[in-house]
Amino acid sequence: MARRGLRMCDLLDPALFREKAARVVAEKNRLAKGAYGANIDFSHEVEETLKQGEKIRAYICDAAELVNHALDSGQSVLFEGAQGTMLDIDHGTYPYVTSSNATIGGVCTGLGVGPRAIDGVLGAAKAYTTRVGEGPLPTELHGELGNRLRESGQEFGAVTGRPRRCGWYDAVAVRYATRVNGLSSLAITKLDVLDGLEELQVCTAYRCGSETLAEMPGDIAQLAVCEPIYETLPGWSRPTKGITRFEDLPAEAQRYIKRLEETSGVPASIVSTGSERDHTIVRNLSSLIGDR
């Protein structure tokens, strides 16, 4: 934490913003001069940022005060996180992680909301496993089957187009996410990507040398040598895309979802059957929001 960051509230005082920006620019130019042999003129970026700040001036406020006031007045507030548990700076597969808390604690530390204000936690998991970038992925599939999941699920980075690594559903990782985040329920997405596969595999534990692990190991070096222990389930041939009622799914797809619930230790209240998330099955939301 260098404590040199520029904050939204700094935009409300242009003179103060320029003063703080000058200190940041000086630090950046020490690096630029070493790398390129010359300073970089950031004056345009500073002034352009101030212009944009004027457009959003009316919306700059204390987020903690705004959100807590809404909660105190009885309003419902939905917090949405990004990335995922295994990319969390503290609880993920360090060092192959992002630079922030992508777990539920990020709501409290990032927004100033107390933990008792959170009524329910919905975890999002695909019907298979994906990962961007490096790091251990025990269920990763290579070759034709991995490509099949990637192409069918359009598993490519939205900005860079980088292909995501794909594999079978990892219930060990989801159980870990359930514990770390205190999940109330799951949203299983992209079920339709598995349409047409004769058999499906679900990783229920890891084999690490002579050990069988039902829980996520804390040592990434150990995780890197773990092999998945699979349970085989029958696939289905009838398309699931567009189905919006659980009972209309093929019997094998229903069994698959129920088995994911059992192995993950949390009910699936939402199932997505469209790659664009435009077709959704909603079931038993009481597990997520109680009687509200």
Task: Please provide a written account of the structure.
With 292 residues, this protein is of the alpha/beta class. It has two domains: 8-59, no CATH class; 119-289, Adenylosuccinate Synthetase, subunit A, domain 3 (Adenylosuccinate Synthetase, Chain A, domain 3). The protein is 33% helix and 16% strand. It is built from nine helices and ten strands. The protein has helices at 14-36, 43-55, 63-72, 105-111, 143-152, 171-181, 220-224, 251-264, 286-289, and strands at 122-126, 129-131, 165-167, 169-170, 185-189, 199-208, 211-213, 227-234, 268-272, 280-282. It is globular, with a radius of gyration of 23 Å. 27% of the residues are buried.
Rounded average pLDDT: 92
Taking all Cα atoms into account, the compactness measure Rg is 23 Å
Secondary-structure-derived class = alpha/beta
Percent range of helical residues = 25-40%
Number of E-state strands: 10
CATH topology of the largest domain: Adenylosuccinate Synthetase, Chain A, domain 3
The residue ranges in which pLDDT falls below 50 over 5 or more consecutive positions are none
CATH superfamily name of the largest domain? Adenylosuccinate Synthetase, subunit A, domain 3
CATH architectural grouping of the largest domain: Alpha-Beta Complex
Largest sheet, if any?
A: 4 strands, mixed
β-strand percent reads 15-25%
**What is the H-and-E element order?**
HHHHEEHEEHEEEHEHEEH
- Give the count of structural domains: 2
Main CATH class of the largest domain: Alpha Beta
Q: What characteristic shape results from the CA principal axes?
A: globular
What distance lies between the first and last C-alpha atoms, to the nearest angstrom? Answer: 40 Å
Given the structure, what is the number of helices?
9
